[in-house]
Amino acid sequence: MKRCDICGDEHFGESLSCEACHKVVSKYQNKPKYPMAEVRKALRGAYYSKSEEKKESCFKCAYTGIIGKFNIQDGTLRTFDDALVLTLDHKNPNSNSKELVVSLNIINKMKTDIPFGDFKKVVIALGEYFNEENDRNSKKFEKELKQMVGKEILVDAPEFHLGGGMA
Known about the structure:
Number of strands: 9
Oligomer: single chain
């Protein structure tokens, strides 16, 4: 008997992981952008529980704390229809770090290449804008976004602002 390297449950077989966790691990095997050591580390850190029948492992999203399951089938996930399916996300995609985190599909699609620490700031600023959509708030959001990304927006004509089109 061995202990699963992800959940710690006892299992039989040659795999490092139990059957339920191995289903998730195997989805990322032979994919160079997902080093197996980082896949296992991310899954271990996000592991939450097993389904009642112990056939599927449940994990926690690093961004929201929502508990969910991975889609172990091949195929592209749709952003909205598969929003609550878990995926692996590069924590800081533009760095040399290979660190991965477990993420809801919708969060991973929204985040794309935004670093972990900046993503929350962008979402908060956007949420504040949505709470009170108006020209003044649009300019505030534009200013905050420019400060976060450290550059000017390409369309920088005085009469054009985010969310408001032509002023």
